[in-house]
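Marked as duplicate of an earlier ticket. Keeping the data here for the record.
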Amino acid sequence: MLDVTALGEVLIDFTPSGYSEKGHVLFETNPGGAPANVLVALSRLNKKTAFIGKVGHDQFGHILKGVLEEQKIDTSNLLFSETVNTTLAFVHLDEKGDRSFSFYRNPGADIMLEKDEIDEDTIKQSRIFHFGSLSLTNEPAATATFTALEYAKKHNVTISYDPNLRIPLWESLEDAKRQIFKGFEYADIVKISEEELEFLTGYRDVIKGTEILQEQFGTAVIFVTLGADGCFYRSKHVYGHKEGFQVKVADTTGAGDAFIGGVLYQILERNKPLDHLTAADFEKMVTFANAIGALTTEGKGGIPSIPTMEQVERFLKKNS
């Protein structure tokens, strides 16, 4: 039995790492990709995970497979494309450590995953299936993703979703909204940012925005990440806000993914229906997830900065 299987992109993040003698920006290569980051967080919390996706049959693709295996993530469904290269992302950091991205993905191997390559049995054996909207931007990966979601529904697997809006990867904002909403039709758990909430609902107000999404799609649990301000959460019975932790931010890449990894860990540990989660459950879950997200921002790159259980426990003890 697997705790969490995730489908989507695993790629190389080129992260700024200072300047050369001639004043040119230097980049270091870090493994990344939102669904892969989520699995790394869970794996470091000692959960059993598997990845479904595609990389290029190139140096970067083989590095990524090695990284996932090092993290004890099952890679039997990580496929290699013979014709398309591994997707690359260049990360741009502002003075606060907040990031934006430029993608080399026209096409990239991650969007070449096909529906016939989805292993139903892997999904059937999972307690949670996680996906993001980046695998919905292009065919054939979009159809492959919806095929996987149908398998998850068929086998009553809990579905976790990160809308993860990356505007440059969509043909149009209308197309983005339509496909992202299609993902909502399957999701039990959603992690969303303030900006994504406003894009989808027209409201930055977390109470109103999440209420609209829940009424429209019946989503069991919604988490809105608020950066340094923590997180807003809503189920069908309770909602609330939990403050974040103050840390020295180096790079916010992967923080939201680490957060959702922490949330999914807590949901697995509680092992009860989402509708039965209480306000006290949410307080503990979100405190834990906020801690993982905060710790991830202290280092450069997504996957290299995600903390272990020991680091999280030490941090929570220190900040209790």
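See parent ticket for discussion. DSSP finds eleven helices and 13 strands in the chain.
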